[in-house]
Write the structure tokens for this entry.
Amino acid sequence: MKAAYDELWQEIVYIKPPWSLQDVLQCFKKHWIAVFGQLVPRKMLETVGSLINFFSSGETISTLWLLQKTKELVKAFRKSSERVPGAITVIEDIMNKVQSQHDTSGELELSAGDVVMNDDESVDKQPGSPHVPPQEVWAVFENIWSQVYQTSLEVFKALSFDPLTMQAATPMGRPPPPQDALACLHRLSSMVSQLLQAFGRVLSSTPGLEEVQTLLSIIYSNKLVGEETRLTAKDLLDCFSQPDYREKLGVGGNQLLELQKALDGCVQTTGQNFAFTAPC
């Protein structure tokens, strides 16, 4: 967290230290996309979830299975922490003791290959978190704008709403619009509002990690980029600390504001013409 956020990390971290084991797992889960998922394979989030479920529910599972999953998770961080080798040694000692107890119980039989994790090439070859240059960061934002704009046009078409006249065609006997289009309209309006607020915070002063992290969280939570897009808060900060890209973000914000007005107009018009019963 400190490597990602410098001295601001204790203000950003989900649970403040000191931590229990559960606290650490919850922090992993909360900051996975922006921080920890950049260091280890994304699939390891499933292991974090399994460990959280085990410790929170007290469900009965194999102790060896739990230790194996723990070892895999810790080993995945071996390039990021000098504490990993010592932790692996401790886990293996415990596994050996548990294995000897299980050999006679018949509860679980594991081969040496099952217990001792082989070197995982996918982990060894996992790239670090490469710096994304500002021009590529901005290309992502251009793609987000195109995606939001095209989706809005599709919703307007489905609702027979004209964003230029801010009116909806409501011929006599026209059936109510599809509920999924209405639900999408409300989600779009909320998402654009969140983006505008985040843009405003980034542009209001010299941006810090907290402002860009909020923007990044909105982008990922609304699935505006795919999982393969590895943007970090630092990438956004480097981009929007430059005057040229701040100016571009301001222009994009103005375009988004115009779209927000059209979305609000559509919400108001459809609300007047039809009863909206589906949840937002």
About this structure: Confidence is low (pLDDT under 50) at residues 107-128, 274-280.
